[in-house]
Amino acid sequence: MSPLLDVRHLRVTFTTDGGPVTAVHDVSFAVQPGEVLAVVGESGSGKSVSLLSVLGLVDRRRTVVEGEATFRGEPILGLSERALRRIRGRDIALISQDPMTALTPVHRIGDQIAEQIRAHERVSRHAARDRTVALLRDVNIPMPERAVDRYPHELSGGMRQRAVIAMALSCNPALLVADEPTTALDTTVQAQVLDMLRRLSAQHGSSVVLITHDMGVVAEMATRVAVMYAGRIVETGTVAELFDDPWHPYTWGLLDSIPPLTGPRPRRLPSIAGMPPPPGRTEPGCPFAPRCRAAMPICRLPPPEQVAGGHRALCVLDAPTRAALRPPRVAA
Amino acid sequence: MLATVVARLVQMAFVMFGISVLVFLIFFATPGSDPAARIAGRNASPETVEQIRHDFGFDRPLPVQYVVMMKRLFVTRDLTSFVNRGQKVIPEVLDAIPATLSLVGGAAVLWVLGSLAVGVAAAALRDTAVDRGLMILSLIGISAPVFWLGEVANLLSQSRYHDTWLFSWVPGLGYVPLSESVSGWFKALVIPWITLAVLYIGIYGRVLRANLIEAYSEDYIRTARAKGLSPTRIMLRHALRTSLLPFITMFGLDFGALVGGAALLTEVVFGINGIGRLTFHALQNLDLPVILATVIYASFFVVAANALVDVLYAVIDPRVRA
C-alpha cells in the first residue's frame, strides 16, 4: 500500500536576525491511508513546523524547506501557492491548537465553514449552508440550525473546537492534521472531542496526523507514533511497539511521566531533568545526551539508527543494555 | 439597537450641553477677558464700558447670561456679532458650512480610498520594493505641510502652468456652491481635496499596513490559508475586516475635527470661506458670539462623528454588539 503522505529528509531552517536556525533536521515519516499517526514531543521539538512546512503554511520569506514530500504520489513540497491552495482544505485539512483564536472573530461560524466548501466545490450558498448545518450536527453542536449564525465569541472553547473540526472535515479531506487539538480544552471536553475526532475521521475515511505532547492521547487515538526531540524523529513505531518496548531513553522519560492507573501512585511523577537544547545547536552528537541517564562518551557522535521492521530509533543502546537500564514497568 | 441609538443621542445632547457651558464660561467668565471692555474698544471711557455691559446684559448673573445667549443662538437666532454690529451669527455660520463640508467630505472620500489602497498594497507586498516605496511616499505625504503643498499646487495650477493644457481648466481660487454648478464645484475643489487628503492618506495608509501585518500573524489567518482560500479573499474578508477598527476610530476623530474647523489652513490657502476661516477671524477679533456658535457647531460634528464611529464598530465587529 503506498503511503498517502510520504515525507523524506525534511529539513526546515528559519532565517532569524541571529542567523539561520534549523528547526527540523532530516525528518522522514509516512502516513498510510486510514491510519492515525501521532507525532509526540515537547514544545519546540519541531512537530508543528514539520507538518506546517509540508503544507506551505510557514512564512515562506523566512523559511527554507528542503527534502522531499509526496502526497498521493505527487510531490507537494515546492508547489506553487496556487497549486497548494487546491490541496489545502480539500485534501489536507488543519485543526489548530487554540480554538479561541483559530476562527476569524468577525464572521459567523457557519459562513466560515461554508466559505471553505465554496472555495473548493461549485455548490450554491444554500447547499453549502445545509452541509454546514449537517457538519455541525455531526460534531454534536446543539441546535446546529441556530449555531451556524453564531459568532465565535458566542461559543465556548469546546464548541469552537467542534466548529473548527467540522470546518476541517467539510470537504472530506484525505488527511487531517490536528495540531494539539485538545490542549486548550478542559479535561472533560478533551475526551469528548477526541472521541468525536476518532469517530468522524473513520467515518470520512481520513487519515490523521495528531500532533500532541500527551502520551495519554497517543495511547487513546494513534496507530503509530513518531517521537520528536530537538527537530528529529528519535523513535517511531506502532503504539504497541513504543509502549511495550521503547528503545530511546527520551521515550522512556515520556512514558514514565504518565501516572499509573493502578497500584500506589508515586508521590511525584518522574520527569526528564534538564532542558531541550537551544534551536541553534550545531554539535553532531545525540541531542538528548546531556539529559540522558544512559549517556556514554559515544553519544557525542551522531547516533546510529536502529531498525526492526517498522520500529526505528536514533540511539546506540542495544537490547540487553536497554533491559538492564530500564526494568520493565510492572504490568497491572 | 434602537435603544443603543437613543441612549447615544441623549449622551450626545448631554456632552454638547457640557461643551456649550464650558465655552461660555471660558469666554464670558474668565478673568481678564471682560467682553464689555473688548467690545468698547481701546481708550473707551468707564461710562461707555458700563453702558455696553448693561446693553449686552453682562451685568446680570452668569446663568441668566448663559440662558439668554443660548436662547438667542438657538431659539430666536438673532444673536449678532460683537464686531460687525448687526451681522447675524447664525446665517454666517450656515453660509460657511457647505464650503467646509464639501472640502472635507471630498477629501475624506479620497483619503479613505487612497489609504485603503496604500495600506492593503503595502501589507500584501510586504518587504518588497513596492512596500518600501509606498511607505516612503506616505512619510513624505505626512511631512509635507498642507499650506506649503497648497501653495505649490496654486503656483502650478494658477500661475506657472495655468495656460498649459494640464491646468487650463482650473478655476480661480474660492468656493463654488454645488447648487450653482456641479462641474464648477468639482473643478474648484478637486485640488484642495487632494491637498488636504495627502496627509491623511499617509497616516492612515501606514497605520492600516501595521494593523494588517499584525492581523497576518494571527491564528485565524493561518486557518484561512489552511482552508485553501485565495490571497485576495484572505486579505479582504479576514485580515482587512478585523484591522478596520483603529482606522474607523481615527477617521471619526479626524473627520469631526476637520469639519469643525481644523481644515483652516486648506481653507485659507485656497480661499474657501469655510468654518475654519470664520472661526479664525472671530478669534482674531474676539468676536464672542461667532466663536460660541462655531465651537458649538464644531463640537456637534466631533460628537456626531464619534457616535457614528460607535455604530460602525457594532456593524463591523460583532463582539462590540451588546
Automatic annotation (TrEMBL), chain A:
Q: Which Gene Ontology CC terms are recorded?
A: plasma membrane
Keyword field contains Membrane: yes
A biological process (GO) of this protein is: peptide transport
**One Pfam short name:** ABC_tran
What is the protein's major site of localization? membrane
Protein species of origin: Rubellimicrobium mesophilum DSM 19309
Q: Which family does it belong to?
A: Belongs to the ABC transporter superfamily.
**Which superkingdom heads the taxonomic lineage of this protein's source?**
Bacteria
Official protein name in the record: Oligopeptide transport ATP-binding protein OppD
Q: Its membrane topology, per UniProt?
A: Peripheral membrane protein
Cite the entry's keywords alphabetically: ATP-binding, Cell membrane, Membrane, Nucleotide-binding, Transport
Q: Which compartments is it annotated to reside in?
A: Cell inner membrane
The UniProt record lists the ABC transporter domain at 7-255
Q: Which GO terms describe its molecular function?
A: ATP binding; ATP hydrolysis activity
Q: Which CDD domains match?
A: ABC_NikE_OppD_transporters (cd03257)
From TrEMBL, chain B:
Look up the record and give one Gene Ontology term from the biological process aspect. Answer: transmembrane transport
| Membrane topology, as annotated | Multi-pass membrane protein
TM spans, by residue? Answer: 12-30, 101-125, 132-150, 184-203, 244-270, 290-316
What keywords tag this UniProt record? Cell membrane, Membrane, Transmembrane, Transmembrane helix, Transport
Claim: Transmembrane is one of the keywords in the record: yes
Quote the Pfam families the UniProt record gives: BPD_transp_1 (PF00528), BPD_transp_1_N (PF19300)
User: Is the keyword Secreted in the record?
Assistant: no
* ABC transmembrane type-1 domain segment(s): 97-313
GO cellular component terms listed in the entry, alphabetical order: plasma membrane
Q: Which PROSITE patterns match?
A: ABC_TM1
Quote the Gene3D superfamilies the UniProt record gives. Answer: MetI-like (1.10.3720.10)
Compartments (UniProt record) = Cell membrane
What family name appears in the similarity comment? Answer: Belongs to the binding-protein-dependent transport system permease family.
PANTHER family according to UniProt: DIPEPTIDE TRANSPORT SYSTEM PERMEASE PROTEIN DPPB-RELATED
The protein's name is Permease of oligopeptide ABC transporter
